[in-house]
Amino acid sequence: MKQVKASAKWLEELLRESTGRSFEVRPTIVFPEWFVERMQGAKDVWLLNPKALPVFIKNERTVLSDPDVHLVTFHLSRYIRSDLRK
């Protein structure tokens, strides 16, 4: 749990530095082909199988606008293709 929370914070910081805007990043762990039982006390991290992910996203209170999705996508794709990730 610590690692996924740290990774979410890292991604929030990367997006803030790159875009100049703050975006909330939800720590999520997806286990393909596993049945995942809901854990008590794990409200700040989603532990899911792939079939549950779309439902959780749909029910999330924060919704990004299309321009925000494009902004984040652009900056993440630029980061992935850069030498900064080394």
Question: Would you give an account of this structure?
Answer:
- The protein is mainly alpha-helical.
- It has one domain.
- Strands 1-2 form a two-stranded parallel sheet.
- The longest helix has 18 residues.
- Find the count of extended strands (DSSP E, 2+ residues): 2
Rounded to the nearest angstrom, the radius of gyration is 14 Å
Decide which structural class fits the backbone: mainly alpha
How many discrete domains?
1
Give a quick account of the main beta sheet: strands, pairing sense, barrel closure: 2 strands, parallel
Helix tally equals 3
Portion in helices: 40-55%
Name the average pLDDT.
85
Strand order of the largest sheet: 1-2
Q: Give the distance, in angstroms, between the N- and C-terminal Cα atoms.
A: 24 Å
SSE order, one letter for each helix or strand? HEEHH
Q: What share of the residues does DSSP label as strand, in percent?
A: 5-15%
The dominant shape is globular
Uncertain parts: none
